[in-house]
Amino acid sequence: MTRRVLRRVADITPPFEALTEMHDRLYRAPLAEFLRPEFEYEPHITLGRAEQPNQFDALIRNAAVVTRASYRGLVQNVSVITLESEREWTRDREVALTF
Fold it and tell me: Do the domain assignments include residue 87?
C-alpha cells in the first residue's frame, strides 16, 4: 500500500471554487467512469508518496517544514498524466485554464 502526504488546498489559501468546479465537470463527462462517489472531493496537492511505512514519518516531517507558511497562487494549467507505475508517469497533455 502506498501512503500519500496531502495538503488540503483549503488550508493553504482561500477556497478554490474553480478547482472544485473543474473536478466536477471532469467527472461528469470524460472521467465519469473513474468517479468515486463515496469520497467527497477536497482540493489538495500531493506532496509525496511513501511505499514503505518508515518513509511516511519522514515525509510528514519534511513536508511540515515547507507547508507551515501560507501560499497564494494562480493555477494556470493542468497536466493530464498517465501513471505507468509507482515511479513512472508520462505527461499526455497540458491544458491551459482560462477563467
Answer: no
